């Protein structure tokens, strides 16, 4: 089981690691749902921590539908991220009719090399979550899907997450559940859904404020809950 924590700075990344996070999702623009961080920030975070760092690749927060200029920016960013030595990228794209954009997805996978690829919460805006997951499962390079089950909070989509997680296991793709989780809700959510990976942002920040730093004590509490659930399942 894995606990992923959002970091928006080197300080966040260090505090997340100190608290026991298993992986970092590095982003900028947390209030906008995350956009691609600067090359300098990526480089500094990679130098500061030893746990895996997955980097958001999202050129802007306007839409998940990208024009050709956006696509070229995405591909250029991925090449740089790969060269810097990140463990993975977090990416997603949709067509205007809210389907997974396979054209850009194939181009992304072609330049991603050995990077682990997570399809991010663009997934939650897809017209059909089940069909989208089945489609993504056809691409072995896509290791996981970050989702809140189509709701603003994953806590309002427990049954959907349970069903998507079961399907993901059949497709050999991991469901990474996130949005709205905190240390008070985490244990019951894990028991009720059966997911093996969770993603936390505001729920492990000081004062539950997205603009405050990561709170290592909250991360430690979340990590302990994940570890306890892992032991229970074994």
From TrEMBL:
GO terms for molecular function: copper ion binding. GO terms for cellular component: cytoplasm. Gene3D superfamilies: Copper homeostasis (CutC) domain. This is PF03932 family protein CutC. Transmembrane segments: none annotated. It comes from the Bacteria. It is found in: Cytoplasm. Belongs to the CutC family. Pfam families: CutC (PF03932). Signal peptide: none annotated.
């Amino acid at each position: 089981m894995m606990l992923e924590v959002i970091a928006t700075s080197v300080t966040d990344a260090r505090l997340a690691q100190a608290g026991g996070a298993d992986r970092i999702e590095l982003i900028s623009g947390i209030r906008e749902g995350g956009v691609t961080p600067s090359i300098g920030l990526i480089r500094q975070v990679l130098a500061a921590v030893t746990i895996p760092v997955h980097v958001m690749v999202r050129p802007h927060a306007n839409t998940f539908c990208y024009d050709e200029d956006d696509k070229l920016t995405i591909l250029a960013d991925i090449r740089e991220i790969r060269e810097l030595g990140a463990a993975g990228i977090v990416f997603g794209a949709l067509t205007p009719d809210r389907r997974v954009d396979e054209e850009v997805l194939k181009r992304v996978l072609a330049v991603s090399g050995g990077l682990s690829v997570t399809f991010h919460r663009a997934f939650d805006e897809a017209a059909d979550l089940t069909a989208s997951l089945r489609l993504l499962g056809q691409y072995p390079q896509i290791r996981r899907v970050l989702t809140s089950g189509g709701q603003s909070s994953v806590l309002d989509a427990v049954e959907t997450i349970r069903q998507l997680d079961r399907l993901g296991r059949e497709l050999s793709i991991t469901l990474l559940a996130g949005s709205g989780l905190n240390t008070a809700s985490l244990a019951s959510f894990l028991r009720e859904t059966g997911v093996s990976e969770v993603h936390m942002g505001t729920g492990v920040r000081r004062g539950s404020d997205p603009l405050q730093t990561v709170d290592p004590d909250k991360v430690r509490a979340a990590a302990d809950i994940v570890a306890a659930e892992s032991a229970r399942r074994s």
